[in-house]
Amino acid sequence: MKKNTFIEKYWGIIIILILTPLLLYAVLPILPTHDDWAGTTKPDFNPFFIKERFLFYGYHWRPFDTFIGYIVGQNPQLLYPSFNHCVVVIGHTICACFLYKLLSTLRFNTPAKNITTLLFFISPATMATVSAIDSMNQVYALLCGIASFLIYIKVKHGRYIVWIMMLFIATWWKENGLMWALICPILAYGFNMIRPKRFKRDLIIGISVMIVYALAIFILPKDIIIHPEYEPGLLKVVKNSIKFLFTTFITVDYIYLLHHPSRNLVAAVVTFVLTIPLMYYVFVRNIMLFFHKKMVCTMICLLIAVGPHLGTVFSMMHTYAGLAMLSVMIAFSIHSYGHHIKPVVISFIFYCLSAVIINIHLIQSSIESGLIGKQMAQEAVQKTGEPIKKAYVIIIEDDYPKLSSFCVIPNEAFGWGLATLYETNYAWPESIQDTTIERSSEALKLAREIGKKKLANHSADGIWIVDHQKIDVIR
Q1: Which of 431, 454, 426, 446 is nearest to 79 (CA)?
Q2: Strands 462-467 and 390-396
Q3: CA neighbor of 321 nearest in space, from 151, 176, 120
Q4: What contacts 70, CB < 8 A, 6 or more positions away?
Q5: What is the pLDDT of residues 417-438, one digit of tens each?
Q6: Distance (Å, rounded) from C-alpha 216 to C-alpha 287?
Q7: Cis bond leading into 124, ω under 30°?
Q8: Edge to edge, what strands does the sheet with 462-467 contain?
């Protein structure tokens, strides 16, 4: 193959490989906030790691997450969260390469494959995942999901064994990986890669795999504590569906649009307007394509991919689960233009400009949120002075607006006190408890009274009172 032909065929992948170190450099300064301090990808020092962490049974089972926590626990100051960022960004790059292979398997033309793959890589819809610290489960569930489809289509001997193994690997990263047990046969059938008889058989196999996993979760030893946020409900499905539609199909700087302290409607409109031409060529002009069998099956797969989140919790991070199927839809639309691709390419350049502007802003906001948490942790440690065993955190309810993982409330950036562990290299405190009280004119006085009672009955050695970004300490 000639050099020029190679570049023409893989220019999207080449650009992605060039952008990967730049993306990693950009996200490395992002520090842990919120669930990063409480999840299983934080440093783990449990001596019974295999029994109590890796072989954890419950309403979710994510052994690879706990393994990440075990690795960074070997040297937190060096590895956390840099190692996590490397795992996420590298996974995102591999995921893009697998997506290119998926689009090739579905027989899209070269421009459609390159534009769509690059769009997936730089899309602001991925940033809540790519810039996060505990999101490798989301990235690798999708990566393994795409791999399961490639195995399902290409492997001849032992296909079902390898396919099912890959489905379980995807699911052990995150539960929505199991959705590929349905996505694989539906997508293959939609693109006429399998006959109706095999489609029915494989759909039954896929459903059986899901039932086996569900039975394992409910039968094996477990302690199931379901957070209220994860309880399903009709209103929740409606709200989450609206979030899904906006975050998946509309590209705009949501910080400038929705986060009140950062609101800049002019900037938000500019980022949105730059994306309109591409959305017009992909979705509006080709609206009739969406009634084609291939597109209908792909849209069904898209809903299946994000289905687990629509009934429980859906945030900007969870958009990532459906982006492979969205990419297939976009590639199908672009493919239909054939040699009349120039307007699409020009509109894609405008989209890229908007994406770069939005991504820089999202990453910078994440960095700022992390720094707030770090400064609060340093203040708590400094004011406490000497090490304590038991810390009690009293949070005065904060009505400061938040937006996903980009603009975090200060007390959540502080991790309800857990951020202090990193500042002491996990030497102290041994335990941290927290409570939240309503904000009022007497809230600070009430917090101090609660703190003094905790000290008097020896249930705490130190009290940290959190009032927005300010930390008061009582010893």
Answers
A1: 426
A2: parallel
A3: 176
A4: 44, 49, 53, 54
A5: 999 999 999 999 999 999 999 9
A6: 43
A7: no
A8: 431-437, 390-396, 462-467, 470-474
Residue 235 falls in which region: left (phi positive, over 0), alpha (psi -120 to 50) or beta? alpha
Amino acid letter, 105: T
Beta-bridge partner residues of 393: 434, 464
The average pLDDT across 310-317 equals: 84
Q: What is the 3-state composition of the chain as percent helix, strand, coil, each rounded to the nearest 5?
A: 70, 5, 25
Query: Which two three-digit tokens encode residue 126?
Result: 């991925």
**Rounded-to-integer distance, Cα 401 and Cα 260, Å:** 7
Nearest to 77 by CA among 464, 431, 427, 469: 427
Q: How is residue 169 written in tokens?
A: 């690997």
Give the whole-angstrom CA distance, residue 148 versus residue 128.
24
- Determine contact, residues 218/210, Cβ cutoff 8 Å: no
Alpha-carbon distance 363 to 23, whole Å?
A: 10
Q: E-assigned strands of 111-157?
A: none
pLDDT single digits (tens) 195-245: 999 999 999 999 999 999 888 877 766 655 555 566 666 787 888 889 899
Of 133, 135, 137, the residue nearest 32 (C-alpha): 133
How far is the C-alpha of 123 from the C-alpha of 397, rounded, in Å?
35
Whole-number Å distance between alpha carbons of 458 and 384? 17
339 backbone dihedrals φ, ψ, rounded to 5°: -85, -10
Q: Residues in the chain, how many?
A: 475
Max CA separation in the chain (angstroms): 79
pLDDT at 201: 96
Beta bridge partners of 390: 431
> Which pLDDT belongs to residue 46?
75
For residue 428, which amino acid is it?
A: W
For residues 312 and 34, the model is more confident at 34
Residues forming beta bridges with residue 396, ordered by sequence position: 437, 467
Instruction: Report helix, strand or coil for 191.
Output: coil
The answer to whether 463 and 396 have CB atoms below 8 angstroms apart is no
Tokens linked to 171: 């699911």
How many Cβ atoms sit within 10 Å of the Cβ of residue 53? 18
Distance of CA 346 to the CA centre of its chain: 30
Which residue type does 178 have? L
Helices 110-122 and 342-384 meet at what angle, rounded to 10?
20
Contact, 352 vs 277, CB < 8 A?
A: no
CB 230 within 8 A of CB 312: yes
